[in-house]
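QA checklist item 7 of 12: single-chain prediction sanity check.
[x] sequence parsed
[x] length recorded as 371
[x] structure emitted
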Amino acid sequence: MSDQMFTSPSRYVQGIDLLERAAQYVRPLGSTPLIIADEIVWDIAGARLQESLRGDELQATKEIFGGEASMNEIKRIAEKVEEAGNDVIIGLGGGKTIDTARAVADHAKLPVAIFPTAVSADAPTARVSVIYTDEGVFDSYLFYEKNPELVAVDTRVIANAPVRTMRSGIGDALATCVEARAVNRANSRRMDDTARPTLAGLALAEMCEETLFAYAHQALRDNEAHIVSRALENICEANTLLSGLGFENGGLAAVHAIHNGFTALNGDIHHMTHGEKVAFGIAVQLMLEGADEAEADRYIGFMQSVGLPTTLEEIHLQDASEEDLRRIAELACSEGETMKQMPGEITPTDVVEAIKAADLYARGLQERLAK
């Protein structure tokens, strides 16, 4: 029987106007932080974070992220860190910036602090980066010895972020429990393949799902109105902490394998966010598992009610050929993918049929609800 393991960041903190108090959480990690952010995020929050840290006597410098979490970009920034002698890395922004910051910190053997500017995915807490080619095609997962030392979420920044980012995060977070349960049923392994999940991982995944069903609609309305409500705070925690710890300690299964399978195709699907593509993947996993109507309605109906895509048309794949679906399915079932964590053996043919079934089911549910 393989070992069980639980991993998490050293510290998670969220609160209103946290950027103004960032130094109290960053100072224990170092005094010369490098802030990595893209140009848009720099204008939204980067300059403010730098000013706040400098005001508290931390010598914060910046590096503008090029946009792709690729090995070339990681090497480029790591060389700058070596020259400048920074002692802590701060990743400020979305998933790819955060993944790059983690890789740079690992390369330089430095602590890393993650400041997400949107709750659009559950990447911030994890000890893994998703690496892409310079062209944006999924390349590999990079696993680290440890999770970030700090994850800090400024809930006012989140309340002012586009509503689509929170909605996407809800899609990503909803997959957490669906996948963790499948891994648990299969007595399979953690996302990093090192050990079996713990009960704690499954419990966090279940709490994540419970929070989404209870607060998602309210939080999206509050996000629209830029209100930092308790509902919005709860969804920040669900999308980031509960989902992050839940997926890492509970395991990934078919949903994220399907998501990665989509990179086999070019075209408009890549205008969809990570969480939007994951949402469709949830419906596909439900079909692979043979979910009954009550379960399928619960998840697919919830996704439709918050505005997440559930049909092939909504993820711009209405014209996908049989061959296209096969390419997605084959990549999703490839050796390094998390499809192997599912109970039983799943073939590319199973996946092709489940994609069609998910699309048909979602369209049928829309028609039923429209009556």
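[x] summary fact logged: Residues 199-224 form the longest helix (26 residues).
[ ] second reviewer sign-off
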